[in-house]
Write a structure and sequence with these properties.
0% strand; disordered C terminus
């Protein structure tokens, strides 16, 4: 005959039933965090990222002359013979060196920034998903650097040559360093960020949040968004910079479909029978 406890009486588990209640296993260590705990965690990750950026900036500033020559020399060589970039504000040239060191410092700090981003989202992941930490950091770093290099060697020279091409006997192109470098930096950061597309897709595919068929079905919409973004970010109105930016990103989208197919769909399908 089973005993029925009083309404306010605490139930004591019977022997052998102590572990019947569901608990978080080792496969999920996320638990629950309050809103303030999320903010505190975000604050810590931002502080570490800024510290890495500050250290990277300090290291890069020690080589600011070499960085200046690496970035600005090709820009000057594309000008008409004898042409140079000019500056009209006393602090303009100095601030250019600071901005160059800041961009170089960001490149140096990218592994740390990517690691801090991963540490921020890791508590909500399963242990199998946490194994993606190293690929996430490596891919983020490599693709960011590749995006910036692609801008330096391909996109910006094409765009810059387009503007220089209007020089003739009547018009002389005498660019100021500040707007010229602002255009360079905007394109570099845009490509560094957009080149993260394979990393994001790989991560989402491994978690089952996106599938290759979904990406294929929405391919035309993705192309439209890429073209619009390239048109907004490209500084020229002739479509040269837009094609130089948008074309590689479309290829990255196609590559991302392949990554989702290899690392997402097949892996998830192989793990489903274990449930």
């Amino acid at each position: 005959m089973a005993l029925v406890p009083f309404p306010n009486q605490a139930q004591v588990p019977a022997p052998g039933e102590e572990n019947n209640e569901p608990e978080w296993s080792d496969d999920h260590t996320g638990g629950k965090m309050s809103f303030l705990e999320h903010l505190d965690e975000l604050r810590k990750r931002i502080i570490w990222s800024l510290l890495a950026l500050f250290i990277g900036f300090g290291v890069a500033f020690g080589f600011h002359d070499q960085i200046f020559d690496f970035v600005m020399r090709p820009m000057q060589q594309l000008l008409p013979k004898g042409g140079t970039l000019i500056y009209t504000d006393p602090s303009e040239a100095f601030m250019l060196h600071v901005q160059l060191a800041l961009i170089a410092g960001l490149v140096l700090a990218i592994p740390v920034v990517a690691t801090q981003l991963w540490l921020f989202i890791a508590p909500g992941l399963y242990s199998k998903e946490k194994k993606l930490a190293i690929p996430f950091v490596v891919m983020s770093t490599v693709l960011f650097v590749v995006g910036i290099a692609f801008n330096h060697y391909v996109v910006f020279p094409i765009t810059w040559r387009f503007f220089v091409g209007f020089t003739n006997d009547i018009l002389t192109f005498m660019p100021r360093v500040d707007p010229a470098f602002s255009m360079y930096m905007r394109l570099a950061l845009a490509l560094g960020i957009t080149f993260q597309l394979p990393t994001v897709v790989l991560f989402l595919a491994r978690m089952g949040m996106i599938t290759p068929m979904f990406m294929i079905r929405h391919f035309k919409y993705a192309v439209l968004l890429i073209i619009i973004a390239a048109a907004v970010l490209s500084p020229d109105g002739g479509g040269v910079g837009m094609l130089a930016m948008g074309g590689p990103v479309i290829l990255l989208y196609i590559l991302s479909i392949g990554l989702a197919w290899i690392f997402g769909k097949k892996k998830v399908a192989a793990e489903e029978p274990e449930d």
